[in-house]
Structure formats: structure tokens, C-alpha cells
Specification:
By secondary structure, the chain is an alpha/beta fold. It has twelve helices and eight strands. Helix 2 packs across helix 3, helix 2 runs antiparallel to helix 11 and helix 6 runs parallel beside helix 7.
Length: 311
């Protein structure tokens, strides 16, 4: 299924505090990360990915995962998730089990990208993640499996959907209740997306299917529309269009959450998100980072705002 029973409601998971921040070249102060997470948690977003338990030498930006989780003031009803790369990461995360409700595990659909990203074969990653998911479910955690380069690999080109669905089926069998398909380097096009999710719904009738698009080549929202047409009602995005893929170079940011929410609202979909509050968080991130961010709504404002009303 794509989302809730209400076809007009679209679920949005904000991944900026993890996926967005990890690509920033300058380390963001822990206190500023916490303030931005607290801001996002009060916009009506119901799901936030806040950090990852990866090795500090691999992604120094996320070395403060424990401190961020301890300090974040997230209201009841907002589901906090963390990205878990392996069993060691799960061990570390479980020390703060009361601070999050969901774990996300990840691997790539292609051998080349997976090797460059985590230095493992796809099969090695799957075997490890099956153990992680099994243990997480015993702890009562909800699990999402994220498949990177699901629509195309910068090293291998197009990835056969059947291969992606086979990986997804393994993750579902292991206990993942949700599968996110990532256009990690912005290679997807709307026709491909529409056909892909038609096949995904047939191959994976159980569990929630989520789309995770990047705007590397400017097709992010067009791909969202194609996914919507195919019945998808769950998306991941990053405020301010922050983020990207560490490999290869040039793989720029996720679709901006404020751009996604603005378009969905204009189309008559409900997200539960206060767009003005969300834009305020993106402005705050822009100030914290000391540079302009690239989301369109952050620049132009939502369509129903008068230019003179914006600060």
C-alpha cells in the first residue's frame, strides 16, 4: 500500500537532520542541530529522522548522535527514527532505546554503489541487515529498509526493477514494515517512476512503499507527481533541499520538504504540516549554515503569501 486509507493524505518524513546535515562540510554545533530538530518537530511533521549511529571517522558530522538524541525535545506523537548501518550501530542506539521509535537500515541496489558506500557486497549487506532488523523488532522498534540507487546507479547505469524488488522482498521478510526507494543521485524520470511503482505494488503488496527523490537534475517534484499517480502516499524529503549522496561527487540535495508540502497542499492533499512553520525552520537552517539554501519556497514563499508579508 502507499499510505493511509485516506487517499488525500500524504505522509512526509523529514530526513534533513540526518541526510541533510551529513553532507555539510563544516560541523554543525550540537546545540544548533537540536534547536533545528525541535523547530521541525513543531511543524506538524509526524516523523523525523534525526541522526545515524555510524562511525565518527566515516561521518564526523554525526559523531554527536547520542548527544542529539538525549537533548532533542520532540513532542509526543512525533516518531523519531535513527539510521542504523550495522549491528554495532544498533548496539549503540539501543543504549538510548527510550529516545526513538523507528530504525532505518540501508543498502544499495547496485554492487558498485554498495561497495563504494559501505565496502560490502549487496549480499553481505543484506545478511547483516537481516540480523539488525530481527533484533530491532524484538526490541519493539518499527523498521524501514532504504534501498539506494533504486532508479539508476552512476557507476552501472539503470538498475533492473526486478533486482530492486528482490532486495525489498528480503527486507520485508526480515521484518521491515516500510521500504523506501531512493533516487540517490537524481537519475529517475517521471515515466520510469510511474512504471517502477506499478511494478512495486504488484511485487510488494504488504507494507508501506515510500519514495525518496533527490533534485540533482531538477526532476524531483515531477517524480513525486508520477509516484502519486501510481498510488504512493509516503515520501521522504529534507528541509532547505539539504543533503545529497557522499558518493559520487555532484550528487546534490534531496527534494525540499517545503517545496514538497507546498505542491501537495496546492493539489488538495493533506500532510498535517504547517507550511509557514516549516519555512521558518528552513530560514533558521539557512542562518545557521551561513549560506543561501536552494529550495524554491524558501526563496519565493508559498503561493498564498503576499511578498510584503515575508521577512
Amino acid at each position: 500500500m502507499g499510505g493511509s486509507g485516506d487517499s488525500d493524505f500524504v505522509h512526509v518524513r523529514e530526513v534533513g537532520p540526518r541526510d541533510g546535515f551529513q553532507n555539510e562540510p563544516e560541523v554543525i554545533a550540537t546545540g544548533e542541530k537540536v534547536r533545528l530538530i525541535d523547530c521541525l518537530a513543531r511543524t506538524g511533521l509526524s516523523r523525523l529522522e534525526v541522526t545515524s549511529f555510524v562511525r565518527a571517522d566515516v561521518i564526523p558530522q554525526l559523531a554527536d548522535a547520542r548527544e542529539v538524541l538525549r537533548a532533542a525535545d520532540v513532542p509526543e506523537g512525533v516518531a523519531v527514527s535513527v539510521l542504523i548501518p550495522n549491528e554495532r550501530g544498533l548496539d549503540e542506539a539501543l543504549e538510548l532505546r527510550d529516545r526513538f521509535a523507528e530504525v532505518n537500515v540501508f543498502l544499495s541496489a547496485s554492487e558498485s554503489h554498495n561497495r563504494r558506500n559501505v565496502n560490502r557486497s549487496v549480499e553481505e549487506s543484506l545478511a547483516g541487515l537481516e540480523r539488525v532488523v530481527g533484533r530491532a523488532r524484538v526490541e519493539g522498534l518499527r523498521c524501514e529498509g532504504v534501498i539506494s540507487v533504486a532508479f539508476g546507479c552512476p557507476y552501472e547505469g539503470e538498475v533492473a526493477p526486478e533486482r530492486v524488488f528482490a532486495i525489498a522482498s528480503r527486507l520485508v521478510a526480515a521484518g521491515c514494515e516500510e521500504i523506501a526507494f531512493g533516487d540517490t543521485t537524481g537519475m529517475a524520470n517521471p515515466r520510469q517512476v510511474r512504471e517502477f511503482f506499478a511494478g512495486a505494488h504488484q511485487s510488494l503488496p504488504q507494507g508501506q512503499l515510500t519514495a525518496h527523490f533527490h533534485n540533482t537534475r531538477g526532476s524531483g517534484l515531477a517524480n513525486v507527481l508520477a509516484a502519486l499517480d501510481s498510488g504512493v502516499r509516503s515520501f521522504e524529503s529534507s528541509f532547505g533541499e539539504l543533503g545529497g549522496c557522499p558518493v559520487p561527487r555532484g550528487a546534490t540535495g534531496n527534494i525540499a520538504t517545503e517545496d514538497l508540502v507546498s505542491m501537495l497542499h496546492e493539489m488538495g492533499h493533506d500532510t498535517g504540516v504547517d507550511l509557514e512553520a516549516l519555512v521558518a525552520c528552513a530560514r533558521r537552517a539557512q542562518e545557521a549554515l551561513g549560506r543561501p539554501l536552494t529550495s524554491h519556497v524558501l526563496t519565493a514563499g508559498p503561493v498564498d503569501w503576499h511578498p510584503d508579508a515575508r521577512s
